[in-house]
Specification:
The chain is of the alpha/beta class. Helices cover about 35% and strands about 20% of the residues. An eight-stranded parallel β-sheet has the order 1-8-7-6-5-4-3-2. Helix 2 (about 50-55) links the parallel strand 2 (about 35-40) and strand 3. The structure holds D-xylitol-5-phosphate and zinc ion (ZN). D-xylitol-5-phosphate (DX5) binds next to strand 2, strand 3 and helix 7.
Length: about 220
């Protein structure tokens, strides 16, 4: 289990600059690139599909992960894995068969992440902690970048860490150096950041600040 995985999101980047942004993040040494996929149903916005991911895959070796904020995530698994994602995260709120979906992702050769909305308790994923590769604790309500970090979510991170010491626990939403440090103290070890990075002098500069907060 890596102590501190930086998994930046390009959601807040100018779409016309996705290529240079991904290249810059790769060169800055992040562990993953996080693609926020929204279908306009599970969350109101619509973002992008697997074709975008495929178009960026040749930029380098950094692993890609898809965060599927979609009503029927299993319909998209194969497309995003074939587009070059090594990890796919779906929301437990739309997955009564979460255990089988994780098996499906493993059969496709990908890691499986399961996401919890702010209103969803940790109990919703207790049955899959042994087979999930990652649990994503949303620290904002999904759908938009640039929202404020929800402090009460730190309790869920603590609960998950006590349930499974070797689990990859990712937090996503409102992450800047201060909140990264607080989430890390609570037990998180993977960090998505979007708008904080685009607000810095450069994406690389923002990554440096987050890496420093990892300690
Ligand atoms: C929100 C997405 C997050 C978001 C994070 O639905 O899942 O990944 O882009 O963005 P910031 O860091 O701006 O909160
Ligand atoms: Zn996300």
């Amino acid at each position: 289990m890596t102590a501190c995985e930086l998994t930046p999101s390009i959601l807040s980047c100018d779409p016309s600059q996705f290529r240079p942004a991904v290249r810059e993040l790769m060169e800055a040494g992040v562990e993953w690139i996080h693609f926020d996929v929204m279908d306009g149903q599970f969350v109101p916005p619509i973002t992008f599909g697997h074709e975008l991911v495929a178009s960026l895959r040749s930029l380098g070796e950094t692993p890609f992960e898809a965060h599927l904020m979609t009503l029927t995530p299993e319909r998209h698994f194969q497309a995003f894995v074939e587009a070059g994602c090594s990890r796919v995260t779906f929301h437990v709120e739309v997955a009564p068969h979460a255990h089988r979906l994780i098996q499906t992702l493993h059969e496709l050769g990908a890691q499986a992440g399961v996401a919890l909305n702010p209103g969803t308790p940790v109990e919703a994923v207790r049955g899959v902690l042994e087979i999930a590769d990652l649990i994503l604790v949303m620290t904002v309500n999904p759908g938009w970048g640039g929202q404020a970090f929800l402090d009460p979510m730190l309790r869920k991170v603590e609960q998950l860490r006590s349930l499974k010491p070797d689990l990859t626990i990712q937090v996503d939403g409102g992450i800047d150096p201060v909140h990264l440090r607080r989430a890390r103290e609570a037990g998180a070890n993977a960090f998505v950041s979007g708008s904080f990075l685009v607000q810095q002098l450069s994406l690389a500069d923002g990554v440096g600040q987050l890496r420093a907060a990892c300690g």
